[in-house]
Amino acid sequence: MKKLLPFLAICILIASCNNSKSSNTTEAMDPINKDKMMNKKTLEGAWELVSFYNYEDNKIVDSFQTSEGYRQVKMYTKSKVMWCKNVPSDSSEWFGYGSYEIHGDTLTEVLDYGSKIMTKIIDLKTKFNNELQLGPNTFTQIEIDDEGNRIYSENYRRIE
């Protein structure tokens, strides 16, 4: 029995060390901690388009949700952006890849390449400047005309 007690003590010590490590892992995966990460005000992450606004005289005059089956996702890293769009009623492929920068409330995306239809647009214009409204779990990019007036916006929600 005397030989068994030190062995049991060591087993208990090892088990308690393992439990503290697993509680840290559990804490990192805890929904509360995930919410803290999701609530950071950063563009880094994955976003899904949920609605559009149309503007007239810089005021929203129309808003609408994405249609059934329509899906557009954007992913941002520290300096890169990639997006793809699926429109069930359109057989065209839509995607683009490039870099981005944020200066104040301006989001600038510079596309390097994209799908066949997007390449036609990129051949004419590679740099896209939009007004940016960034929240912790939402962002809106607003297209501005040459006179500085808002035209329309894409409104996104964070999915990761």
Q: Could you spell the SSE succession in H and E letters?
A: HHEEEEEEHEEE
Task: Give the CA-based shape.
Answer: globular
Mean pLDDT: 82
Separation, N- and C-terminal Cα atoms:
54 Å
Q: What fraction strand?
A: over 45%
- DSSP summary, beta strand count: 9
Largest sheet: 8 strands, antiparallel, barrel
Radius of gyration: 24 Å
Oligomer: single chain
Count of separate DSSP helical elements = 3
Residue runs with pLDDT of under 50 for 5 or more positions? 4-30
Describe this structure in words.
The chain is an alpha+beta fold and 160 residues long. It is 27% helix and 47% strand. Strand 8 (138-144) and strand 9 (150-158) form a beta hairpin. The termini are far apart. Mean pLDDT is 82; it is low at 4-30.
Distinctive features:
single chain, 160 residues, alpha+beta, eight-stranded antiparallel β-barrel, 3 helices, 9 strands, 27% helix, globular
Précis, in short:
The protein is an alpha+beta fold. Helices cover 27% and strands 47% of the residues.
